[in-house]
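Notes to self after the Tuesday call (sharing in case useful).
The group wants a holo model before anyone commits to mutagenesis around the pocket. I volunteered. Ligand is pyridoxal-5'-phosphate. Logging inputs and output together so the record is complete.
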Amino acid sequence: MQKQKPYLESFPDNNGYFGKFGGSYIPPSLVEPFNEINEAYNKLSKDFNFLNELKTIRKYYQGRPTPLYFAKNLSTKVDGNIYLKREDLNHTGAHKLNHCMAEALLAKYLGKKKLIAETGAGQHGVALATAAAYFGLECEIHMGEVDIKKEHPNVVKMKILGAKVVPVTKGLKTLKEAVDSAFESYLSDTKNSMFAIGSVVGPHPFPKMIRDFQSVIGFEAKEQFFEMTGKLPDMVTACVGGGSNAMGIFSAFIEDSVELYAIEPAGKGDKIGEHSASITYGKEGIMHGFNSIMLADENGEPAPVHSIASGIDYPSVGPEHAYLNSIGRTKIGLCTDNEAVEAFYTLSRLEGIIPALESSHAIAFAMKYAKEHKEKSILVNLSGRGDKDIDFVIENFPID
Ligand SMILES: *Cc1c(COP(=O)(O)O)cnc(C)c1O
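Result:
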């Protein structure tokens, strides 16, 4: 009998499909440039020099491996066993640099001079601007005017890092228009520029590429967990916006008997516009160039979404998440705005770690789960630090 190919090699297929999800739904003018990226990635993902350079950057510039930490006080409080993978200690304070450095390295190998991307809350923009500075590449970040006002500190950071922030004034002046604007700019010079997507979303090969770049989280954590406990965790959990930090940590455990919980933002209610729980409330549909489960309005357009954490208020989800959920390999957990804020304070006060509001969703779920499964060990991806959220939290949810 032939040995089955490992999951990560079999998914996605050559056209970028995870089952029926994924693919590439793009205008003809983008087909050629995306093929170039795909072919380059296929080659470089097996290239010793590329992989070695990435490894060196991760170790000496980013500070990897990030620690795995047994959260003793938090575990005592819920009478369970909670471990944190500390992506908040990655340079720039979140997991996003894992894929931004790799995308920029790819651009360098392709001889590109400029990185182009859109950003919503600005987190991807800051990470990409950091990578661009490192490699001496130009960086152009498209951002809706509404978001520019809302996310002032990130805009300042991008500028300090040398990136050009392009304000987008069309339509609702938020992420959707920023995506269009960034694509337009990319199309005007695909020879010298590279489009750098910020999560496991978008057309093929991005969901695969970003997952592979983020899988370092899972493979490190698996080894560290085994070293610490002699076993694998019983459950692994992470918050899901587009889904990159979750796919990053899940990748290493897909073929193990480990429960995987993807946590969606339940926001402040279950009506359209009150949450961004795409898999929980959405249906199959195409947006931003890929087929997945999305939240749509009556016209099939992306619906308005809400989460207290601006990094996870996305009206769709990476196609691999849609697929893994459809076959029952992952389960979905929900976390409301209020539960996330409570977890934000709990972790800060019990462990001296201020988590990002995004990551707080996974912490909240882990605490709930731990109370119901006292014997089980839980691995949480702490995707980022909460410095960016402190003003908002203290103004809107003051406690003494
Ligand atoms: C952007 C971000 C997220 C959400 O992105 P994913 O692609 O779903 O991982 C989660 N946590 C932090 C800290 C972020 O900055």
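Two things stood out.
Residues 94, 96, 123, 199, 239-245, 311-312, 356, 358-359, 383-384 surround pyridoxal-5'-phosphate (CB under 6 Å).
Residues 63-94+216-396 form a domain with the Rossmann fold fold (CATH 3.40.50.1100).
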